[in-house]
Amino acid sequence: MLVGLAPAAHGGNRTGRIFTGDRSGDWLYAALHRGGFANRARSERRGDGLRLEGAYVTAVNRCPPPGNRPTPAERDNCLPYLVDELRLLRRARVIVALGWFAWDGVLRSLRALGDEVPRPRPRFGHGAEAGIGRYTLLGCYHPSQQNTFTGTLTEAMLDDVLARARGLSSGRGAARGRGRTS
Fold first, then answer.
1. What is the largest CA-CA distance in the chain?
2. What does 70-118 look like in DSSP terms, one character per residue?
3. Are the C-beta atoms of residues 5 and 102 closer than 8 Å to each other?
4. What predicted TM-score, i.e. pTM, was given to this entire model?
């Protein structure tokens, strides 16, 4: 399961599929394809033939926030939807949080489901890893242009996180990361 911030006003909100129709989505779906999670490297709109295998993409917020800066009230209003998705996706074991906002939203959702979030609270960082209940939460910088244009997030960095997610979801390397938050 990959969790982002919100659908982009001119991307997912316009196309009907999250991370579609903008450069963040171009980066993400290309990486999902390289990692074997998608049958093609590009997502253009709902119904374009893209199929995900072993992956589910969602967001904390359900509508594009003004200025791409969601408020705590917007997050709290949308959080029940993420909680419901986690409840419904019974086979999900690995959650990749794309950015701090998603990391925070996932931790809040897991707490709402009754999972005990460790104290001190796991800190977000690229490559951060925390075991919470049945899940392993992985941190990844968001594939925004701000991060990809500056080299804060490279294709190799994103590929590494997705490879780790694949390994954890298949049972390889699961013990290595439990409880690690660095």
1. 44
2. --HHHHHHHHHHHHHHHHH-TT--EEEEESHHHHHHHHHHHHHTTPPPP
3. yes
4. 0.89
SS3 (DSSP) at 164: helix
Strands of 94-98's sheet in order across:
57-59, 2-4, 94-98, 135-140, 129-132
Residues 121-157 pLDDT 10s: 999 999 999 999 999 999 999 999 999 999 999 999 9
Map out the domains of the chain as residue ranges. Answer: 2-177
Superfamily of domain 2-177: Uracil-DNA glycosylase-like domain (3.40.470.10)
Amino acid at 34: R
Beta bridge mates, 59: 4
